[in-house]
Amino acid sequence: MGEKIVFLSIVLIMFFTGYNINKLSNTGIYFGVRIPSKFKEDKDLLKEFKLYKKWFLLLNVPIICIVGLFINMKESATMILVGTIIVIIATGIPRIIFWKRLKALKESKGWIKESKNMVVVDTSLRKPSKNRNENPLPTKYFILLIIFPIITLILTVMNFDKLPDLVPIHFNFQGIADGFADKGTRDGIVKIYSLVLSQFFIVGLFIFINKVIIKGKTDLNGGGIKALVIKKRKFKRINSIFMFVMGLEIEILYLAMQIAIIFNLNIQLINIIQLVVVSMTGIIYVIISFIIGQGGKNISINENEEEIYRDDDKHWIFGSLYYNKNDMSLMVEKRVGVGYTINVAHPIGMLIGIGTILLLVGSLVYMIYMGI
Amino acid sequence: MILMMDFDSETPIYMQIKNQIIKGIAKGTVENIEELPSVRALAEDIGVNMHTVNKAYNLLKDEGYIKIDRRKGAVISLNLDETTGKFKEKMTEEIDYFIAECINRRITQEELNSIINAHYANYFEKVK
Question: Are A52 and A31 in contact (CB under 8 A)?
Fold first, then answer.
């Protein structure tokens, strides 16, 4: 039941973002290709948009139905993971095909010549603006989240003696305990405190994310300067607020879970609440992203400035993987999709990239091997 | 302040950074104490080596336009009195050369004056 909710929301998000890929890409980006804004109403370009949506539906509706049927028949963690990977690949294939098609179209129309080898920088974009409503949340708000792991830690320490020798720490979706920690062993103690540790880690993670939002590189390209700066500022602010809400949610949920473990309360209810909250947050994030767009591009502003247009297609593998050796930044704005991505040419970026693939393959192999 | 770097220009990037910051100060688009981005941040944004930005900042510092604060980084702070004498010497020399070019190209004194006036006025217009 629970796994199905997760799978369903992943499918919904992938389907929706895939179908509306250009609305959720950065300014001036179509299928990962940069197009000068004066050509965005070009007939051949509009034809491609229509064709994409058609092929996207033709390919994905049957695939998602089949995967859904399989998961309905045999619900297991492995099935969910495999299903998710299939859906991610299937929703990505049309985009890569149209990335190639659009590159060819751009070449044949000679739009590449429009590019000016110019970089525009707003030196004040990282600094707080005088108008408070334009600023991302300051990092100190995120540091305040540390209250939650501390409460959890104190509660756990205070009630440690009252805990049974075998503490149920993991529950299946029916709410029956299927994982226990032996209070007497060191391993067991670590397990009892694992939620607290995760909470501390999550606070750190969100502080990092907010730092990226505030200090990360902002690409001013594909629009007028003034309009771009206003959009980017709004985008940063909304993103930062959303991240704070998400951090708060996770911290409260983890605290609730630990309380349930300590006082032996009904964990099933918390499990369901957790799933619903996490899924809803994901869906709301996509909706907000759809409204404001990547880098705030869908925010409407009167624009009558000259467009900055610098062709940077060569740095984006498949139009969405950033590889630029001359760029020192680790995190940059995504080109396709909303949020931030890593520069794979950066040493740490490369490590993260390889690590993610290894983790995914590793967990898949492990799950199949264990027969989960 | 908005910096526009032209990678096709013959002017090297460090010079462009320096020139545009000086222009920004003259135009009043930068406040007197505005903190400039860190060397690293500006290098990231422009997509150049940190040495390039460092070179520009050092030149600005030597001329008295910015000072490097230990905590805040590069801060705009005008301290030009020391270098103004030197600048005037250089300016006279260069203006002399430009006038020679103008005479050779038959550009009249009025024409030259009007160009100078227009550019001078330019710096006071856009502040509003």
Answer: yes
User: Which of A116, A117, A120, A121 to mutate: most B Cβ within 10 Å?
Assistant: A121
User: Looking at this protein, which amino acid is placed at residue A200?
Assistant: F
Which bin fits A316, alpha (ψ -120 to 50), beta or left (φ > 0)? beta
- pLDDT at B18 > cutoff 50: yes
Q: pTM for this structure?
A: 0.84
Q: Considering Cα of A156, then A157, then A162, then A168, what sign does the dihedral take?
A: positive
Predicted confidence (pLDDT) per residue in A149-162, tens digit = 999 999 999 988 88
Query: In terms of residues, how long is chain B?
Result: 128
Q: Which two tokens stand for residue A75?
A: 């619900």
Does residue A218 come out as left (phi exceeding 0), alpha (psi in the -120 to 50 range) or beta?
Answer: beta
**What is the DSSP code string of B45-84?**
HHT--HHHHHHHHHHHHHHTSEEEETTTEEEE----HHHH
Nearest CA in chain A to B49: A326
Q: Give, for B109, the enclosing helix (H) or strand (E).
A: helix B109-125
